[in-house]
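Summary for the steering committee. The consortium agreed at its last meeting that each partner would contribute one worked example illustrating the joint modelling workflow. Our contribution is presented below. We chose a case with several input lines so that the handling of multiple components could be demonstrated. No manual editing was applied between input and output; the record is shown as generated.
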Amino acid sequence: MQNAIEICNGAHSFKETEVLKQINLSVKKGEIFGLLGPSGAGKTTLINIITGQLHPSEGKSIIQGVDSTLLSGDEYKKIGIMMDHFGLYERMSCYDNLKFYAKLDGNSNDEIDERINRILKEIALFEVKKLPVAKLSKGMKNRLSFARAILRRPDILFLDEPTCGLDPNTTEELHKRILEEKARGTTIFLTTHNMHEAQKLCDHVALLHEGIIVAYGNPSELCRKYNHQRRFLIHLKNGEDVELGHERDSADTIANYLKNDELETIHTTEPDLETIFMELTGGKLNQ
Amino acid sequence: MMNHVRSILWKQLKDTLKNTAILIQFLMFPCMTIIMETCVDIPNMQEHFFSNMFAVMYVGMAPLTAMSAIISEEKEQNTLRVLQMYNVKAFEYFVGNAIYIISICMCGSLVIGIAGGYRGMDLLRFMVIMLIGHVISMFAGAAIGAGCKNQMVATSLSVPIMMVGAFLPMLSTFNHTIEKVAKYIYSEQLYLILNRQGATIIRVDTLVILLINILLIAGCFTKAYRHVFSD
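What follows is the complete predicted structure of the assembly.
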């Protein structure tokens, strides 16, 4: 599968501070890629570099086969971005916000009207389309920001902390929309410090710590790779908890529990991404 | 390019006309001119006294505060970063905003001119002088807005500059010492041009002072311009 995004030896410094160091990664077309890291790890800086808003101090970033620093108007039209800050005009209505950005892309008024109304219905903002953005809740602004990102039917979608500070229902709704975009063939690059989000949505993740990628891979594979304990946690119907190692004898014990209908649940002890991050860096993701 | 400029103009009409703080700047002095010219009648008062005084205040205040507020607000709200993703160039952004601000300011100037009794060629001359003033002030506002990271910093910078530009010409009519300083400010020179009669309305010293003002403001604008999308 062809890569939608490639970064080779990418590095960036703000004056004396080195924010990103020797970043090498690739994102395949049509996949959801998650960049995980605590606040200040360099996630937004990396998005800014990939989208050409920032020139890397060193290395190269390529998006859809084009150097990020050389992106033209037509190439920008294939990129949708939802930023950590909404970037919406507070005094303008939801509809006018979307209309403005659609006009910037050179769409005709008839086409704009139909498409904006359809998207506003899809994200459940049609009823409030004439309301100024300032009067919307945070969840609504988030959905509107997402609507703006998908309005131009992008090939690549950048979502910078898309669910940060949202309630569980809105988060769930947004996850659904993200997966729908993936089903349409859109490549999605999302940053988050929410490990559950990454495990649920992403095909591949990279853990970013102090500007360095400390781990990269499929979330499940990473969890298996760092499963040092290799144990089974068994909960029996009588309320007893049993821990067994990955040994030949354990198979007989588990078989006996099953045979005697004593087994309630059985789990492996694979770590989650948070635990892996802590093991690799000594710090927490959600900082 | 024209599509981006048109879209920004459309956006400003939708957005800034709902911004009362900016709207007041556009409407205050034309309204004050109408009121003063209609209601106040002082014997032996200089012709066009109120209109000229308020016209210069309008020049020093409205385009400067409007431009700096628009740009700094966009920086603060991160909308400039989004515009960058829509491939809007800094030049297109400025042209869109400039057309909007200058158009509204010229409408306000027309009201001031007519309320002040200017007619025919005198009105045309008045409008040309106002246009020069608005363009200089707008660039000063753009330099402040582009150079500041947020609205608070922009306001704290634009207010004193606006006070100097808007009020020194008025104060200089009452105090000779202030006049000595004020004559180096573009708004004072525009005030003097407005008050001059006959063929010698533009003198060499006026042109030199205006040119130095324009060069200084253009220099600040050029320096700040490259930071519009980079902060």
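DSSP finds ten helices and 13 strands in chain A. The radius of gyration of chain A is 22 Å.
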